[in-house]
Amino acid sequence: MAHPEEPRTPSETSAARDWTDEHVARWQPVLPGLDPVVEGAVTRMKKLSVHFRRVREQSLVDFDLERHEFDTLHKIAGRGGSAAPSELAEDLDLAPASVSGRLEALEKRGFIRRTQSTTDRRRVVVELTAAGRETWLGAMDVLGHEEYRLLGVLSPEERALLNGMLRRVMVEAESSHPTRHW
Question: With a threshold of 0.85, does the pTM exceed it?
Answer without folding.
Answer: no
